[in-house]
Amino acid sequence: MKQKSLLLIDDDQDFLETMSYELEPLGFKTKMANSASAALEIVNKTQETFHYIVVDLRMGNESGLDLLENLRSRQPHAMITMLTAYGSIATTVEAMKRGCDNYLQKPCSIQELLAALQISDEDKSEAKENIPATSEEIPDLYRKEREYIDFVLKLKKGNISHAAKALGIKRQSLQRKLKKFIPKN
Q1: 4-131 homologous superfamily
Q2: Between the CA of residue 161 and those of 24, 130, 147, 168, 173, what are the distances in Å?
Q3: What global pTM score does this model have?
Q4: What is the mean pLDDT of residues 13-37?
């Protein structure tokens, strides 16, 4: 499988490293930038074509919105996703006008980000139809937690001790969480 190149842009270095760590085993070749100027330097110097770009809305005193048009002109075929903890309808609309393909609210799961990154132009209309209409269709927090635990376990090749360490919990706590999950039929 050919790796897909991904540029991560965020002022939170821990977030960048965590996302890179989680995405690289899934087939992404990641580059990281912790500011708008660093991102433009990477895009201009490497002349690399990125398949995906994930950019934060607020990076210190810089705005990811201001960066979008430059990224879109330099990387016209990249799937650009904006992540933000400060989302609003106005910024969503503005981001889309400036060339953003997807807009996600932080915190988002790695599964939500992967879903946003893999949406092609043909699938965009289907994705809008798949948005849950009622709260019954939205997975509960417990299910989300279990899905994330399963994801980490898969990354750690089923090793409970390594997965617990990656999750920041004790091995016994992880085992209890795994035992109490009963799937709904």
Answers
A1: Response regulator (3.40.50.2300)
A2: 21, 36, 18, 11, 11
A3: 0.62
A4: 86
